[in-house]
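Re: the request from the purification team.
They wanted to know what the chain is likely to look like in 3D before they choose a buffer screen. I agreed to run a prediction and write the result into the notebook, where they can find it.
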Amino acid sequence: MRRTLPRPASRRLTALATLLGLALLCTAAQAQWTWRDKTGRVTASDLPPPRDVPEKDIISRPPARPVPTQSTSPTQPRQASPGSPASSPVSATPTPAPVDRELESKKKAAEAEKSAQAKAEETRQNQLRADNCRRARAQVLALENGQRMARVNEKGEREVLDDKGRAEETRRARDVITSDCR
């Protein structure tokens, strides 16, 4: 005669077996990086912290990958891998992993882009200074030649420059020449 478990025990056993199976299939996800941000809050992630986080605030890092070493013993001859010459010497420095090379190339590209932006900004600033210098020199020349000049005041009225106004405008233009003309 066949014996069966009561229903509640059968359900528990099935649920337990299902949970055990799921637990075996899932691996525990662990954060590799842990750091303290500017506000003092501890953050964990599988990505490294932002660059503005100081070294002292990094709590934990991922474990370093072990570098495979090739050792040859006198009793075992060294075997050449397919596609490589048998007489090639073993290099003392490990070759960087593809991820490391990609990261380094991204860093170099970001640095190059940053320096290009800085150079473009410097070029733009130099052009503005040259334009200001050219205008200021033209203004001083016009003021010194005695041309009749007028400006618009705060009320929107046009007023002709007298000797005092000419002296002020000449001083301002010379200040611009001093600061922007090199």
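For the purification team: Confidence is low (pLDDT under 50) at residues 84-88.
Please add any questions underneath this entry.
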